[in-house]
Amino acid sequence: MKQFEHPAPSALDSPYSTAVGRKIRDKAKALVPLLRKNAGDGEKLGALTAESLKALTDIGAFKLSLPTDFGGHALGARDVVEIVSEIGRGDGAAGWMVFVAGGLRNVLAFPEQAVQEIFAGSEDWIGPLAAGASVFATKVGSARRVDGGWMVSGSWHFGSGCKHAQWMVVGVEYETGPGMVGRAIAVLKASQVEIIDNWHVMGMKATSSNSLTVREEQFVPDQRFMDLAEFPLRMDETRQRYQGLASKFDGRGLMLLTNLTHLSIVLGMARGALETYIDMARKQQPFNLPYPRVADMASTQICAAKAYAMIKLAETTVHSAADLLDRHAIDGIEISAEQEQAMMMENVYAAHTLDSAVGTLQLSIGSATANENNAIQRFVRDIRVAMLHGTVRLDPTAEIFGRQLMGIAPFPMFAGGLPDRGPPPAG
Hints:
The protein has eleven helices and eight strands. By secondary structure, it is an alpha+beta fold.
């Protein structure tokens, strides 16, 4: 399977692209046929197939931003987005699992004892080592203090990768004093958590984004429990503790990298949809027009050209933002709040244009895409579900940035999910 060819010149290699990153990117590109072949089976499983999971593990896809201290590649933003977009070109759910694995860097903020415990024996682990659920959500679990740690219970939603992970990172609420509550992150072993069979959705079915529950309290030692108020400082300390570009991003840089990785999955799926569209158009005969092939129809040519332009514009947005993040990380320059909000707006808008482009491709090529084995219908569904994620909702993002444009103090990114400390909620 070849990526569609076009006469337009390709962009020059980024100065922030590395030999290691390009090697993994090329390996990811070679996996596209396998990932696309297995995507349907993954949807039925509600998780990646064993073959896809092993193939991604073998190329190092789950250790892209992990420090070299733990066998990772410590890659920067440009390398990560190029690799993830290639994986998304094969299967959006596979790209999402690589996205999930990137969240493992948050674990590095925990005390050294916890980090060593979590990474012990991880060299042979197949798939993402940890999954997160409801860390920044409005509704989280609960924790109470005991000798040496915390007793944790509750339910959490959208635990992407939970069927593949060894550790679960969840959000909890706990009493900080009489009538006062705080928010924290707890890391549990997968064996302490029950996976609920409720990920029955229209797209991204193979991401195992199930809900999790702990019905009977489970013990979490102090070293695997962290108040969210401490998290930014602890993350900042990792910039000095670990080597490699991946460890040099500031807090806003990490937030933007997370956003860019999300967009890169959508970008890859849009590329995959256009490839499939061109391949189908070259083979099919129109239903109600006298052309030998659908590809000979002017409407098909116009649709393909417009979709290509939208994809290239989104690609330019992703690559330029990734380069900016890498440059700031290398030079030790902090990302300003104004930069963060502007870049977030640009990224989210670009992703939504891709949703529109792929939907138009499906409508143009017709009913053959309704077949559940057709890649376009899967890309359409997976992109739509990816765009439902709270961090890439267009109107809320536009409101946050629009307030800045109007000279009004903007809301923080997770204003609804990180309440200030105060009395416990009633009831």
